[in-house]
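hey so i finally got around to running the thing on that chain from the lab meeting. sorry it took forever, my laptop kept dying and i had to restart like 3 times. anyway pasting the input first so we r on the same page abt which one it is
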Amino acid sequence: MTVSNPSRDDSDRPNSPLARLAIGAAAFAVVAGMLGGGWIGWQTWRSSPGYTQNYVADRGQTVTVTLPDADVDADKTVLQLDTATSVNARLYSNRRVMLVEEGRASFDIKPNREQPFYVLAGAAQVEGTDAIYSVGQSKTGMEAGRTVISVEAGTVKVTSTASSEMMASSSQDGGQDYAPRDLSAGQRLTADEKGRLGTIANLPASEITAWRQGRIVFKNTPLARAVAEFERYGRTGLVVRQSAVSALTVDGTYGVKQFKDFAAALPGMLPVRLEQQGDVTEIVAR
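ok and heres what got predicted. didnt touch it at all, straight out
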């Protein structure tokens, strides 16, 4: 004879509807927890770089680097760092990000739709795929705060990273200073420290690639800036203190170490003379 337990109702039985519902809810909670944990892990993986490296070229040297962003060497991105340059590379699962902290670097990018390529410098962001371009960023000197983007091949998109408040405050031109720009081969653009994007300039490829071939090109360049460019590659001993002389402009192409030839040619190009003062040579008005 079977005796029922009055303190136990049907819901306690394993096959009862309520029991099956409870088991289903518990299973769903476990699966949801696993999925939730997996989603968080996936998001963390996507937001954390799988590779980070800081590349540096000391004053007077250039450095060529191949990024580990592909399985085959022929498909990898190649960076060339100019003198006195620092670039921080971060490779994520869904993007490649380069931060030009100081100096200038060129990027020969291999296309990968799964990992778009971004270069951040100053207040500008550059995005390009299957392109070759250089980005320069100065923190000190006459060029402090300026970011220069020059395209050798392909196309890139330059975007200002200025704050929305700063963009909103620019009402004189309707915010056009902050509008994204598309650059193609043979074009250059300069962004200032506030993220305002300048006018696109067209220039020959030889001028864009000059620094990668160890040459400096001056085209209507202020003398003080020309001297500063030579100084990036090593001590020249040349100084310009007079403001009127600093503003005089020069033209020409020189090797990065030809500062002595440059100085010797100045009196024939400009109304200046060289005055030796101890271990420095001052360029003064004649």
